[in-house]
Structure formats: C-alpha cells, structure tokens
Amino acid sequence: ESDTASEISFQFNRHKKTPSIGSHSSDMASVSSVSGSVLSVYSGDFGSMDAQGTVEFALDYDEKNREFQVHVSQCKDLAVVDDKKGRSDPYVKTYLLPDKARMGKRKTSVKKRTVNPIYNEVLRYKIEKMVLLIQKLNLSVWHNDPLGRNSFLGEIEIDLASWDWSNRKLNWYPLKSRSLSAVNGVDHRGVMSLSIKYVPPGSLGKWPKNPPSGEVHIWVKDVKDLLQLRPSGVDSFVKCYVLPDTSKKSYQKTRVIKRDTNPVFNHTIVYDGFHTEDLKDACVELTVWDHEKLTNHFLGGIRLGLGTGLSYGISVDWMDSTQEEVAFWQEMMLAANEWIEGLLPLRSL
C-alpha cells in the first residue's frame, strides 16, 4: 500500500507508576529517564510575574552580512521577584516566531540586583531578509534563578513584515503579559494526510497467537502547504517517535522529498509491543523537517494521543494533543483492525 515501510518492536515499562532514579532496562523504556529528559527540555519557564516596566531596543538588518540585529539597550522599572531582598536578576531573551526551535534563542547577559538593567548588547541572527519578513520577533525579559526556575517579567512581539526598516533608532516599548502566539506558536504550517490502525494482540488468529502483541500502524501519506524557508524550496522528511520512548528504538523516518512544498511520502511504520492499555499512556509524535547539510529545520508536527498531560501516572509536557488529534486517536482505539483516515494541521511542539 505504501512506497516504503518500517517495522519496529516497542515495549513500555507498564508497571512503574513512580520514577526511581537511574532505573533502566535494555528492553524497556524507563519512564523515570524519559520524564527526566522532558524536564531538561522544558526547564526554565516556571514562574510568572505581573508584567511591568519598559525595554529600550532597536532593530536593523545588515544586508552585506545577511544578518538580523537586535540592539538591546536597557530596561526600566521591572517587577521585583524577590520581595524579601527587593531584587531581580534580569536578562533579555529573543526568539523568531513562528518557529522558536529553528532559529534558536538569543539572550543577553544577566544583570544582578537591579530592576533597571543596562545591557548595550547586540543579538544576531544569520537569516535571509525574505525569510525574516515572514517572522515575528518575540523579545522577553526574565529573572534568572540559580536553580533554573526563571520568572517571566514581560515581553513585546513585533511583526517584522510591517516593521519600518528605516527606523534604526533606540526606542522604548512597554512590556506586556504573555501572548498566545509566543506560548503556543499558533500559525499555519501545513496539513498532514495520514491513516492509523491498531491491531490488538491475537486478533488475527487464535493459534499461534497472531500478533503476539498489539501493533500500531502509521501510514504517512503526504503533507501540503509546508513553510518554504528558502527560494529553492523545501527538502522535507518526517520523523516518528512513540513517546515516552525517545531512544533509537522508537525512532523512524521517511525518505527526503526534495524541492516540494507538497511532498508525497507514502510511508508506513509499524510498532509492535503495544498492549491495549498502553494506548492511554503513549503518544505518537510525527514531525516534519527541512533537510540541510549542516542542520535540519523544524517545520511542524502533530502528537497523537489522549492529551491528558499524564503518561503512566507521571505529568509530562508532551501529552498535549489538540482536540482533533485526540479525536483521531480515540477513533483508532474504538475501531480495532480498521484504517482510520485523517487530515491534521501541523503545529509547533
């Protein structure tokens, strides 16, 4: 049915409800080690203060070096994080949205014990001007905590398509509360066409037991309207993981389709080792990437699961499926041995 297919065995640590540090098995995904890796990815954005104060900065684009420059000058009247000591240790962080992961974050140094920090630093992005003009700049101010529990102090978001590039002067901007697009990266990234099927243990024959364990089949058909990051087009491929396992055991990918914003993959992946109860705690993550020699750029993805925020009794950030993704997964759970077809929008993860 498909051009290419992958099959991989997958087993969960089903019985572990609470993490035990260092527990690991060569045959099972350790829930404790996975939850620890998730914490390392999502650490840093814990506390939140009422936004107040202002930030002074200027924007410029260096045509010769193809470089976007954010001149961060200073902040005034920031919120006080430590009331007892009357202090904040602020720094400024920037992202280019919609895709924070692709361009990465830039940040200034930390200025200690002040609500009026002076930076005079330049944050730089190597990026083509035409790509820059479809981005938004998210500039936020944070209190730096030694334990990593940083506090949000305010932000500003600028649509670079409508920015006046003749304006290179430093200007003051009021810091605002957190915006929805900065948190969720809501935007149009394309649509993935796929089918999924669950085959319960023993459902295809009584003796010998066929299959011996349950199987999840994922048929990645095509993607339409991908983001085009450069004039030559997009060289895309799809990665697949079954969370909580982020090891090579669950990692699969399609071939690369070159110079096409509407790639047809027609690739089927089969994961065995699934028991029916695992479907409540597992999540299939499919992500689309633009392939380049030095690095791959994230374009968008989907997460198929129940979106409960929990996996085997542990709170995890990645169990965050949208209503559409949850409905798709539930339909598969209710219709054993049947292909369920779906058309799901890609999103930031």
UniProtKB/TrEMBL annotation:
Residues 51-173, 188-319 form the C2 domain. It comes from the Eukaryota. It holds the Pfam family C2. One of its GO terms (biological process) is exocytosis. SMART domains: C2. The gene is Sytl2_0. This is Synaptotagmin-like protein 2. GO terms for cellular component: exocytic vesicle; plasma membrane. PANTHER family: BITESIZE, ISOFORM I, SYNAPTOTAGMIN LIKE 2.
